[in-house]
């Protein structure tokens, strides 16, 4: 099959790469909770949550905006919440799965 025979995709998934990076950080987060490196996880997750929410807005997938707004607030490094324990540890992979699902489903048509 040559390049002439290939049909270009009609959709693009702009949120996929930031979602994948955030999911990797969140899957590593339970190992880093309580340490200095968890601050870096908070920055990564909060910033990428805002980026994914923006891509959801652009794609008109409105239902993702409150989800990632909440993630950005809960993982914010500037005014952190003092969460700990098993609920906070379990929230890390749950948020990672949300990022992965959103990254796979948020898509826009190519122009």
Automatic annotation (TrEMBL):
Entry-linked InterPro entries:
DUF6804
For this UniProt record, the keywords arranged alphabetically read as follows:
Membrane, Transmembrane, Transmembrane helix
Q: Which residue windows are transmembrane per the record?
A: 15-33, 39-57, 64-83, 89-106
Highest taxon listed in the record's lineage? Bacteria
**Pfam families given in the database record:** DUF6804
The protein in question is named Uncharacterized protein
Q: Which organism is it from?
A: Microbacterium trichothecenolyticum (Aureobacterium trichothecenolyticum)
């Amino acid at each position: 099959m040559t390049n002439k025979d290939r049909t270009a995709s009609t959709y693009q998934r702009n949120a996929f790469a930031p979602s994948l990076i955030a999911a990797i950080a969140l899957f590593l987060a339970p190992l880093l909770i309580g340490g200095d490196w968890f601050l870096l996880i908070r920055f990564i997750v909060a910033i990428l949550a805002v980026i994914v929410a923006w891509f959801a807005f652009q794609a008109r997938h409105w239902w993702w905006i409150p989800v990632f707004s909440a993630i950005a607030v809960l993982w914010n490094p500037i005014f952190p919440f003092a969460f700990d324990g098993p609920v906070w540890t379990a929230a890390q992979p749950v948020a990672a799965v949300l990022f992965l699902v959103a990254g796979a489903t948020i898509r826009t048509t190519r122009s």
